[in-house]
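Figure 3 (text version): structure tokens given as input.
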């Protein structure tokens, strides 16, 4: 499968000033690779359908829908809160395996020795968004968080280690890869909005984000 952009072994890709530990690889997956990954995701979604997570305590539904791939999946609901578990909250079945292209991306972009354990699949309808948050439900913060975007472009917001730190925003387009590593591993981040009509990959529009994470310490 063709993967465009830099070869593995190159340095960390584009690192904007002040974004220490932020790795951006625009166009990491070319059009053919994006379409092939989408096909693999469609099969996985048949086994592990999208569900609507809810906020701890309040039970307020997220605007994104989710599922997971790999040995562990991230879930959230009113009574159990944010957590990782080995099974789908609605079907009770194990999550489907992660496609090879994702394992390869983890190695090439994250460069972490141990494999990822969870791939969170977020599906954004055109009006969905994600509030500013940190990814901190993992035991291992030494491992980066690696993400791939498919479909419509997102306006992604990245801040610092405190919620009140200044933030900046940039676009993540279909095929783009990003890693939050080192000093950016625990940076606050979110998705302000999706820019409808910016990609033809998903026939009905919207965006898929795949977030790869190591959960346990190797
Ligand atoms: C997330 O932080 O879980 C998702 C980020 C994104 O959709 O790009
Ligand atoms: Fe996140």
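Below: residues designed for each position.
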């Amino acid at each position: 499968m063709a993967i465009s952009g830099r070869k593995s072994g190159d340095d960390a890709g584009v690192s904007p000033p002040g974004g220490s530990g932020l790795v951006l690889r625009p166009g990491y997956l070319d059009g053919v690779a994006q379409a092939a990954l989408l096909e693999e995701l469609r099969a996985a979604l048949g086994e592990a359908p999208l569900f609507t997570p809810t906020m701890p305590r309040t039970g307020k539904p997220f605007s994104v829908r989710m599922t997971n791939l790999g040995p562990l999946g991230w879930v959230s609901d009113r009574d159990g809160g944010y957590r990782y578990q080995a099974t789908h909250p609605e079907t009770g079945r194990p999550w489907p395996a992660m496609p090879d292209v994702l394992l390869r991306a983890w190695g090439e972009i994250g460069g972490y020795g141990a494999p990822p354990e969870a791939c969170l699949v977020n599906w954004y309808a055109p009006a969905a968004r994600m509030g500013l948050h940190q990814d901190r439900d993992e035991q291992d913060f030494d491992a980066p968080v690696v993400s791939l975007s498919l479909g419509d472009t997102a306006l992604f917001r990245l801040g610092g280690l405190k919620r009140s730190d200044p933030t900046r925003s940039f676009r993540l387009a279909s095929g783009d890869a990003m890693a939050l590593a080192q000093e950016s591993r625990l940076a606050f981040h979110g998705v302000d909005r999706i820019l409808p009509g910016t990609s033809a990959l998903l026939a009905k529009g919207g965006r898929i984000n795949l977030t790869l994470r190591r959960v346990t310490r190797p």
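Helices lie at 31-47, 100-110.
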